[in-house]
């Protein structure tokens, strides 16, 4: 009888619990470190699209476009790029703004995560 009861018992062992806890904690820490970079990327993309899609700015001097981006960057607390990093071009009469920038996220000790972001107003 005792032998049959042991076979029916199921669950997680202490070592299994510790391993899964470590995996969950590491995933949560990685997520908490990565999410701010992606939120800032979305803010940069949103600013580029808003400026490029404004019809009154289609024939504006690049310096004025950069100044508008600087103002939006202050409002949206964008620190990864500045107005000098933005490339301004015309494609089919439409102003296209783009920027490429790296982000280095320190994880722990001497291990870091390096992400290259590219945002453009037409993508």
What does the model show?
It is a single chain. This protein has 123 residues and is of the alpha+beta class. The chain has one domain. Helix content is 50%, strand content 24%. It contains 3 helices and 3 strands, in the order αααβββ. The chain has a 3-stranded antiparallel sheet, with helices on one face. α2 (14-52) packs antiparallel against α3.
Write the layout of secondary structure elements.
Elements: H1 2-8, H2 14-52, H3 62-76, E1 87-91, E2 94-108, E3 111-120
Antiparallel strand pairs: 1-2, 2-3
Strand arrangement, major sheet: 1-2-3
Number of domains: 1
Shape: elongated
Q: Provide the low-confidence segments as ranges.
A: none
Share of helical residues: 40-55%
**Major sheet details:** 3 strands, antiparallel
Radius of gyration: 24 Å
- Mean pLDDT across the residues is 90
Query: What is the overall number of helices?
Result: 3
Tell me the series of helices and strands, N- to C-terminal: HHHEEE
Strand content: 15-25%
What's the count of strands? 3
């Amino acid at each position: 009888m005792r032998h049959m009861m042991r076979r029916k018992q199921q669950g997680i062992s202490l070592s299994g619990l510790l391993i899964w806890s470590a995996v969950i904690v590491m995933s949560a820490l990685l997520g908490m470190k990565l999410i701010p970079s992606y939120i800032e990327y979305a803010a940069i993309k949103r600013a580029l699209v808003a400026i490029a899609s404004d019809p009154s700015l289609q024939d504006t001097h690049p310096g004025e476009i950069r100044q508008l981006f600087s103002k939006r960057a202050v409002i949206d607390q964008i620190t990864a790029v500045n107005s000098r990093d933005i490339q301004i071009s015309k494609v089919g009469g439409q102003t296209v703004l783009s920027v490429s920038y790296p982000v280095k996220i320190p994880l722990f000790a001497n291990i870091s995560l390096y992400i290259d972001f590219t945002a453009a107003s037409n993508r």
